[in-house]
Amino acid sequence: MKAIFKREFRAYFTSTIGYIYLAAFFAFSGFLFYSNNIAEKTTSMYSLFTYLFNANFILVPILTMRMYSEDKKQKTDQLLLTSPVTLGGLVGGKFLSAFGMYMCGGVVTLLYALVMSGYSAVPWGTILTSFLGFALAGAALIAIGGFISALTENQIVAVIISFIFNFFYILYFDTLAKAITITPISKAMLGLSITQYYANFTIGLIDLPSVLFMLTLTGLFIFFTIRIIDKRRWS
Questions:
Q1: CB-side neighbour CA atoms (13 Å) of 11
Q2: CB distance 176 to 159 below 8 Å
Q3: What is the distance between the alpha carbons of residues 216 and 212, in angstroms, rounded to a whole number?
Q4: 158 with 152: CB under 8 angstroms?
Q5: pLDDT tens for each residue of 147-165
Q6: What angle do CA 65, 163, 219 make, to 5 degrees?
Q7: DSSP string for 151-193
Q8: 7, 62, 180, 183: least buried by Cβ within 10 Å?
Q9: Distance between CA 222 and CA 230 in Å, rounded?
Q10: Treating both helix axes as pointing N-terminal to C-terminal, what angle do 46-64 and 17-33 enclose, rounded to 10 degrees?
């Protein structure tokens, strides 16, 4: 897994993807920090974390579109599949490399908080829980994006499908769930809404159901990806 992680993480910087992602993340987060904190003279980072989470429908597909589709297109996937590494190590290494890039961008939010702490009292409790929620939600969305990437050899197809899925799941899934008048169905859909669980972190709550949901969603799609890769190995 360690070798796969190093290979994939390095690949983000030998191509333009890593630079595009970080540039987009820093530019957007910097704009949010200025408009929501500096301009408004507040230390609350609720809006910043909320908008950054919503922006994941664009940002995460940038990270995940090449995870498996590029290897499949270049026919290097069979080389990886015959290397002395387990499928779990292969998928785990790729997942951790994308998550590592995600956190390279996310850590800047803590730097913003440090800057503000030099001038005023900062609600560190809420900021740290929001940061944890941002990390867990990102892990889940990366696992889903990796699964989508494993389904196709075309990076453009992978990024479009991930974009559409994330756009609906992040921005409109809970709205649709609340609009359904059949109570059991509405409750069941809300129970699958990542936005609902993420919202708990942004108000300073770390509840077990929210953590378990994020971790379960991540693990489930990593498992699905392993199954897809395993079928490819024997095809």
A1: 18
A2: no
A3: 6
A4: yes
A5: 999 998 888 999 999 999 9
A6: 65
A7: T-S-HHHHHHHHHHHHHHHHHTHHHHHHH---HHHHHHHHTT-
A8: 183
A9: 12
A10: 170
Q: Give the tens place of pLDDT for each residue, 45-71.
A: 999 999 999 999 999 999 999 888 877
Give burial (CB, 10 Å; 0-12/13-18/19+) of 165: middle
Look at residue 175 in the predicted model and tell me its pLDDT: 87
pTM over 0.90: yes
Interval 108-144: pLDDT, tens: 999 999 999 999 999 999 999 999 999 999 999 999 9
Mind giving me the DSSP string for 93-151? HHHHHHHHHHHHHHTHHHHHHHHHHTTS---HHHHHHHHHHHHHHHHHHHHHHHHHHHT
CA angle 54, 97, 212 (to 5 degrees): 55
Tokens 């897809």 — which residue?
228
Does residue 77 have a pLDDT over 80?
A: no
Task: Give the H/E segment covering residue 91.
Answer: helix 87-106
Kindly tell me if the per-residue pLDDT of 73 is higher than 90: no
- Cα–Cα distance between 78 and 157 in angstroms, integer? 21
- Residue 76's pLDDT is 66
Residue 39 CB partners (closer than 8 Å, separation 6+): none
Determine the 3-state secondary structure of 225 from DSSP: helix
Rounded to a whole number of angstroms, the CA Rg of the chain reads: 19
* Per-residue b or e along 34-54, where b marks 16 or more CB atoms closer than 10 Å to that residue's CB: eebbeeeeebebbbbbbebbb
